[in-house]
Every structure is written in C-alpha cells, then in structure tokens.
Amino acid sequence: MATAATQSEALLWVRIGDAGEYCDFDSLDDALEYLNELRVGKVDRWQRYGFDTPNYHGHDYISIFWGGSDANPWADLDDDDRETIENGLEENYL
Hints:
The chain is an alpha+beta fold. The chain has helices at 28-37, 79-88; strands spanning 11-16, 23-25, 45-47, 50-52, 62-67, 73-75.
C-alpha cells in the first residue's frame, strides 16, 4: 500500500478500461465487490498500476492503485493486495 506517512490518507482507485471513470474505495473488499459487479474477470497479467483480464487488455486494462484524493498514483498494489484481488475476482467473460 502507500507509504506509512500517507497510508491513512490513501484511497484505492479503480478505472475499468480506457473509457471508464476513476472510482475511489476505502478498501480492497469494496473494490472487489465493484469489480465483480462489473464482471471484469480474472487477472491475466499484472501491470504496474493495474491488470489485464480476458475482457480488458492492452491499453484497455483495469487500473487499480493507491493514491490521494486527486486520483494520482502514490503506490501500486503490493503482493498481498494483488493476491487478495486474484483470489477475490470471479471468472467472467463478456
């Protein structure tokens, strides 16, 4: 997650594909619920600030990162965060 100095202020930002709007979440669980409601599917490959799925890939991937209120990235997801996402996403294909 974000550094200790900014951790209490950090929000988890998610954007679904290039056409999506950035949405902020207080927790990974809230973000996972949102991602599963939108049926994004399982992680194929991680990028620095997001991941590819069978439904969103290349330049149209899922953005997810820790940042401030302005949606600028402070940190990418750490290994524990990524594992939580991978284990919590449901397999779906559009």
